[in-house]
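JOB MANIFEST
job_type = single_chain_structure
chain_count = 1
residues = 80
[input]
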Amino acid sequence: MVGVGFEVGALWVFGYPFVGRPGVIVYERDGETLKGRWTVGGAETTWSETLTRAPANHPPPPPTPQRDTPKPSAGTVRQL
């Protein structure tokens, strides 16, 4: 997932695609946590989440598997 965002004061705001629909999330810094509210296009509600920093001794996440992307052959047009 790729999106775009920026920080304004204590708020972090991000837009992103979510299953073909636009999504938006706003986080607010609250001490050592980020409290977020988010929604996606077509939803009639918002959801909330709280992010906390993992402890220093927390194991790293597993590597993200790489997808095999077929290489276009000569003369193939790829739609972006």
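[summary]
The chain is about 0% helix and 45% strand.
The chain has a mean pLDDT of 85.
exit_status = 0
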